[in-house]
Amino acid sequence: xxxxxxxxxxxxxxxxxxxxxxxxxxxxxxxxxxxxxxxxxxxxxxxxxxxxxxxxxxxxxxxxxxxxxxxxxxxxxxxxxxxxxxxxxxxxxxxxxxxxxxxxxxxxxxxxxxxxxxxxxxxxxxxxxxxxxxxxxxxxxxxxxxxxxxxxxxxxxxxxxxxxxxxxxxxxxxxxxxxxxxxxxxxxxxxxxxxx
Length: 196
Fold this sequence. Notes:
By secondary structure, the protein is an alpha/beta fold. 31% of the residues lie in helices and 28% in strands. It is built from 7 helices and 9 strands, in the order H-E-E-H-E-H-E-H-E-H-E-H-E-H-E-E.
């Protein structure tokens, strides 16, 4: 048997994910076949919203690397007053807008562009929740996005970071942040961060 045929098959992303809770519970969201698009696993999203307390009524949220929109739409489904989904890929942004219209999600806005730039444009301390799930292959995005998120998030707000490895106490402290919760699920490290 040739060596190549013994290699494990690369994990293929699901074709759709579901919103877990709130008014759109069980709603399916399409997952486009795009390199680097890696929707947050259901178990991780469920844990995140358990950490946050399920009810996000009145919260202002920004999903900086929206992709499928699963994180931001989950927040909207649970009562967030304003959710901005920022996505740089034109096709994904168009798909997000189609989903937003289908759900009649009046509290959600889709913006095509750079997630870190959108965070820098947000009023200081104006957001209750910042969602950061940058492409794992673009390591240069993480620090600038975290710096911008630390400025944009309210003093009692949260930053969710999904990364291929854990972020340590010292690295976070340099950005004015601290870990509130952490979960490892497969190749994903989920962090819930707060300001120092």
